[in-house]
């Protein structure tokens, strides 16, 4: 019986360590998710450099706001045909999207956003963060209160949050395509644009994958452990 208790305590200690490691992995995903949702470098919109002009225009946007920048062409790499990257120093003008408050579409380089798609991407991302926070709370309860039944709930929450983040990224991609196609007929004419996805969206992809991986780790930990208690009595019986 003494050996049975020893092995059970040892298994519980190792199990707690594994839960902490899985939580650390999920925390990395959560950090990337918050960084992604909270920043506005999801995509960069770049105009083409014009001959005879000292400046060019670029923009970067995320779920909540858009920033347009006037960059000096001398700072733009010579091998680029377009303005950018948006991280270069320049005169910036950042505004929050009004479709969250007044319901108005935003205009960027004579193009109009499709607010329904942008709103959907933002709402899905926020739901992902909320479910992720619930998953963190469940795992903390497992470690502090020993509520083992919450381990499976936490795994489901982290998996769902990862899926929601990835869905939000895909919806945002559709919003970018819609923006490029909705050219305003009003003067001045819309400039030619190129676009490239930036580091905020990369953080979102990494966050979604890491959260899914963390959910898988938590699900593995919910599987029955090796039955030390059933083996140890047999060993003791053989010894007698």
Automatic annotation (TrEMBL):
It comes from the Eukaryota. It is found in: Cell membrane; Membrane. It is a multi-pass membrane protein. Interacts with CACNA1C. Identified in a complex with the L-type calcium channel subunits CACNA1C, CACNA2D1 and either CACNB1 or CACNB2. PANTHER family: VOLTAGE-DEPENDENT CALCIUM CHANNEL GAMMA-1 SUBUNIT-RELATED, VOLTAGE-DEPENDENT CALCIUM CHANNEL GAMMA-6 SUBUNIT. The gene is CACNG6. This is Voltage-dependent calcium channel gamma-6 subunit. The chain crosses the membrane at residues 21-43, 119-142, 149-169, 197-221. Keywords: Calcium, Calcium channel, Calcium transport, Cell membrane, Ion channel, Ion transport, Membrane, Transmembrane, Transmembrane helix, Transport, Voltage-gated channel. One of its GO terms (biological process) is regulation of calcium ion transmembrane transport via high voltage-gated calcium channel. One of its GO terms (molecular function) is calcium channel regulator activity. It comes from Pan paniscus. InterPro entries: PMP22/EMP/MP20/Claudin, VDCC_g6su, VDCC_gsu. The keyword ATP-binding does not apply. Belongs to the PMP-22/EMP/MP20 family. CACNG subfamily. The keyword Ribosomal protein does not apply. Regulates the activity of L-type calcium channels that contain CACNA1C as pore-forming subunit.
